[in-house]
Amino acid sequence: MTSFDVIRQLILMIGRRSLGARGDGFCAIVIELATVGLGVSAPVLLKLAVDALDEGSAPSSLVMFYVSGFVIAWTGTNATTALKHIFTIRIIDTLARRIVLDAADSQLPNLARNGEGDSARLQGILERLPFSLQVVIDGLLWRALPLLVQTLVSLAIVAVLVPPRYVAMMAVVLGAYLIVTGKGTGRFQDAARGANEAAGAQAQTLGDVLRNARRVIFNGNLAAELDIIASRIADRRCANERVSRLIAATASMQSVVLALGLCVLLVVAANDVSAGQLTVGDFVLLQAYAFRLALPLGGFAYMLRQAGVSIANIGEALALGEQDRSETQLPASVSTGPAEIVLDRVGFRYGEEWVLRGASAHVASGSFVVLVGPNGSGKSTLAQIIAGLIEPEEGDVSINGRPLCDVDSDERHGLVLYAPQTIGLFNRTLRENALYPPTLASEAELAAILTDWGFYESGRPVDLNLEVGEQGARLSGGQTQKLELARLARVSVPTVILDETTSALDQASELRAIWTLREGYRGRTTLILITHRVAMAREADTVLFLEGGRLHAGRHEMLMREHEGYVRFCGSLG
Ligand SMILES: Nc1ncnc2c1ncn2[C@@H]1O[C@H](COP(=O)(O)OP(=O)(O)OP(=O)(O)O)[C@@H](O)[C@H]1O
């Protein structure tokens, strides 16, 4: 996305009725026009006052009128600028809200899929967004557009009030200024993109380290991690300095052009005043306009420096929101009864590496299935294929006779609920985490289940208002899993897959939890549990055993009789 595209898109967004920024944009433009009007009329009133004083014959009331008009126009611009700021902030908030929501809407499914996306980088981009919008809208748009209007109006007034050659001189100075600015801007655009990327890398590293505070501290690696953060900060400083150097070069050229141009203009005007071809008022008018334009143009260099990096940041945030967002629906609660699942020669590979080949199995409707296999044998991968979260490279999965590839991705969530190996808890209350959709559990049911499962060893009642902390840091590993299992005990979905959701439970708790789930799922849900426990395999209606990319299915006793690899595997579990 080029800088021009980003600015065009922002302007279109402000103008879009559905977004709600259009009214604020309109008010801001009206106020800006009033500011320009006041700013342009102040020098004219001053010229009239000076000419009247110079002539000496004008009535004093007229001089008073000109002088007070000049003061009011001059000071009035401060008030209108402050007023415009109120609307600008509202526009920025509205745009930031839309862009952040679009990006989150589009990126959350990517983050949910295996290994895709980078939450810390995303957070960095979106956190910098309001500041970037402030710089671009307040600093650039609200400066460039009024400056353009003010320049045109000033030139028109100068053309009417003083000889036309002054308009030509001012136009030449402005033209030269624009050429120098355009060349400089083109050079620093790449550097600005680099500075934005360096800012992203710093946010990514910082977020990653902060999120893994326990890993860092418990392994005594604080100093090493601080070094890594420091090197990202240094990279960012380097990138920023490159932008600053390029901007400084451009700003110097701009100053030279302005200084030379204004010098020539005012020297010629002074000569004309001496020769009686211009009045003193004309001279005052010319210098007022010249400096009125020169001052904001000088500040423009600084804004361009900030704006380049900010435009790159906004472009990145806009691009995030434009990516495919087809898989954003909440699991639809469908009650088609428990799923019958058929795997027909399913194959899958990550890159060149095949994880599964020719996997076939039949899972009876409403059964309890245990999926076992050595570490890295592909259990989570197969579970995600059954859940429709990843597409098999070969073969088909069908649920209740319907090939999963024919089922819309939103509908798939309603057929299979996959509970991933790592349970992410929100830093909210126990109640909010445990009653997270699509559970149908009431608070009372939830409390009863958790108490029955011995959530606290002492047997004390469960406090649903407990703040669980970041990633459930105030809960034990087993309590976190019990919370998740209690939530899932009351869902109405044809298939539930638990990816090692019972791994931290002691054997009695695991049996009890699975028993509760199976009772609740009777006639409604097929349950698949990934586990490393032989005891659960003995309980299962069907065992799916994965080894060396091959899938073997049957009851535990049958596999023990007929499959050497399975016997070895069960033996290794102890
Ligand atoms: N997103 C990914 N990209 C590349 N390779 C992956 C990805 N996810 C998993 N793998 C690889 O695929 C293989 C199977 O991984 P998977 O997580 O399915 O195994 P698993 O049987 O569930 O393992 P475990 O018992 O340790 O949880 C592993 O070698 C793993 O490194």
UniProtKB/TrEMBL annotation:
It comes from the Bacteria. Residues 341-573 form the ABC transporter domain. CDD domains: ABCC_MRP_Like. One of its GO terms (molecular function) is ATP binding. It is a multi-pass membrane protein. It is found in: Cell membrane. Its main location: membrane. Keywords: ATP-binding, Membrane, Nucleotide-binding, Transmembrane, Transmembrane helix. SUPFAM superfamilies: ABC transporter transmembrane region, P-loop containing nucleoside triphosphate hydrolases. The chain crosses the membrane at residues 26-50, 62-83, 140-160, 166-184, 246-271, 283-304. The keyword Zinc-finger does not apply. Residues 28-306 form the ABC transmembrane type-1 domain. This is ABC transporter ATP-binding protein.
